[in-house]
Amino acid sequence: MSDFILANEPAIRILGFVSVLSLMAVWETLATRRHQTIKRLLRWPANLAIVVLGTLAIRLLFPLAAVGAAIYASEQGWGLLNLVSIPGWVTVVLAIIALDLAIYFQHRIFHAVPWFWRLHRMHHADLEFDVTTGLRFHPLEIVLSMAIKMAVVVLVGAPALAVVVFEVLLNASSLFNHGNVRLPQRVDRWLRLLLVTPDMHRVHHSAIQRETDSNFGFSVSWWDRLFGTYRAQPEKGHLGMTIGIEDFRTERDLRLDQMLIQPFRRTKKWVRHSE
After folding, report:
1. Comparing C-alpha atoms, which of 134, 130, 127 is closest to residue 243?
2. Is 273 inside a domain boundary?
3. Which of 171, 231, 232, 267 sees the fewest Cβ atoms within 10 Å?
4. Rounded to an integer, what distance in angstroms lies between the CA atom of residue 53 and that of residue 41?
5. What is the pTM of this model?
6. How many domains is the chain built from?
7. Is 54 within the bounds of a domain?
């Protein structure tokens, strides 16, 4: 099974991406959580185009990316999990957990360090919150994130299978938890004991900084609860909260060219947005 997954990695990634994106887009249409004042036609082309640019940047700079790093580390015997003798499936599970924890702390760092925030704020500058917001990351952030991920893969000694599974799950989780979808409150309450739900992650996209600095997890909700960054609900409610960043609130800011130069634009309060 693992050989099949590794041999068909590109197809699995593309199939997973297209399937989850399509499912969430239909779900958003059938069970919308928040009414959107800015239509998809104004936002989606740039949000989808930025994915293409980020993917091209990764393939150009890191042809084998994190999977290649995992294979090389395994061949060299590098990394913590390559130094111990445990069943293969346990190694995969531990590696996935370690990678998810690393992504959580990376996310917090990208909020705390001014220059990293300049890159990451493009993700938060979307004026609506839906499935394509989960794709909206600056290519420079994508490249930096991949370099960090490769370093973590080598340090942990994550097997290649774990890296593929983790990246597919992370991508699917990002699409899901950015969905503008309505879940029954009881379902959301129980589901977020394990996973990051759209209502949980939407708080993170609030224009209020203390809410933005919460709910950093992408996949599981454990890390926010464990490290004290969990916030259950936005102060103004999900229908009353403002999405985005104070300094980037025009439709012009949603254009692809403006998204690409946004990290280099000075604003009144460029380090962090205000409450």
Report:
1. 127
2. no
3. 232
4. 19
5. 0.92
6. 1
7. yes
